[in-house]
Amino acid sequence: MAESPTVAIVGAGMAGLAAAHYLAINHIDFEVYETSDRPGGRVATDHIDGLTLDRGFQIVLEDYPELRRLVSVAELPLHRLYPGVYLQHEEEPLLLSDPRRVPGTYRQTLATLTGLMRLPNLRSAVHYLNTQHPTIADLGEVLPLPLNETVFAPLFRGVTLDSELSGPASFAFFILRRFLNGYASLPTEGMAQLPAIIAGPLRDHIHYHHKAISVASGQLIFDDGTTVTPDWIVLAVDAPALGPLLDLHLPAMRSVGFLHTLSNRRLFGVPAVELPTRGSPIYTIAPMSDIAPSYVNHNPERHLITASCDPTATPAELRAALALALNCSQEDLEFIEFGVVEAALPRGARTVAEVGQRVLLAGDHVGTPSLNSAIESGRQAAERIIRAVRRGTKEPGVDG
Residue 199 to residues 6, 14, 108, 207: CA-CA distances in angstroms? Predict the structure, then answer.
């Protein structure tokens, strides 16, 4: 292989791209080695028969601080979701809007919340305040039961893919602030457009179809037998790929199912996500073409709906649950694709950010299960290297 770079980044997912971006703007020599033929990692999109199909339901939260540091969000080709959610109800979904951004919905929002509000659970509140590391479930138990079961718990089941809501309550507060302070959006050409835009200026330094199989004594070995010996290595890969590289046993990641379906009529009044109840195998339902008409090539007769779901549910169970949540017949829906995103999000346990001399880790498994955390970990790995290079040393110091 060609002369070894100062920094070798393994993985062109969001963490690896962020690390490369910050190294590039600080004029640090680097190369990125990616197993597949595209950037983005788990952020992926397929274009089939005039449809834009993301691999699993994902969105861009415009208020993610790390995303705003990395790119100019205002210049991204984004289509915004309606600032609110549909809540599954007895007869038809209820729309809960953000009245600050949708003038005229104060009365409707107040009526919806009034039906969900009860006295808070004081015993759970005391437990929450006296728990050193409260979980998302602990926080939800403080809320009135209808509000927790209808809004809070379904929302964070969809966000974390964790039915037990065992993640830290601080992560729930972080996500809620992102929803309240900004918009959720979809890129015009699908979620894969986001990493493609970030990878654009880096294209000459990204090497696709390069699978690293070993990291030993500062040397990267690839499956074709070639090697590089950089000064620093950033392993920006998911836990399943990281384990074999470092001979580590890491916690299994959470998988999520998804299904794409078409309807010949519009089933949503506004382009907002619907949250089924916790007992449903469906986690979230999104009217993709209502949000971004480009997802159906601007065909007004096709209405694309994507749902995230329990990966262990059968297609028959998912069809029935989706039709029930949408208050329509299964015959009204043309099911396009069922799939499972394996290792979609990390579990709660974090991995360390540095595993050896000049070997750093990056990815959402280093922090929290979010796009923001993946980008942040890549930036922090790059900054760790930049500080060392500026000090004129290749030896690692001690950083918090």
Answer: 19, 9, 43, 12
Size (the chain), residues: 400
pLDDT average, residue stretch 94-104: 92
- Model confidence at 400: pLDDT above 50: no
Tens-place pLDDT, residues 223-278: 999 999 999 999 999 988 888 888 777 778 899 999 999 998 999 999 999 999 98
**Confidence (pTM):** 0.93
Side by side, the strands of the sheet bearing 60-61 are 60-61, 184-187, 78-80
Bridge partners (DSSP) of residue 95 are 86
Q: What is the pLDDT of residue 151?
A: 94
Please give the C-alpha separations between residue 82 and each of 52, 64, 276, in angstroms, as whole numbers. 20, 18, 17
Tell me the average pLDDT across 83-107. Answer: 89
304: closest CA among 282, 334, 274, 276? 334
Q: Which domains does the chain have, with CATH numbers?
A: 7-44+192-250+348-390 (3.50.50.60), 80-186+254-345 (3.90.660.50)
When the pLDDT of each residue in the chain is averaged and rounded to a whole number, the result is: 92
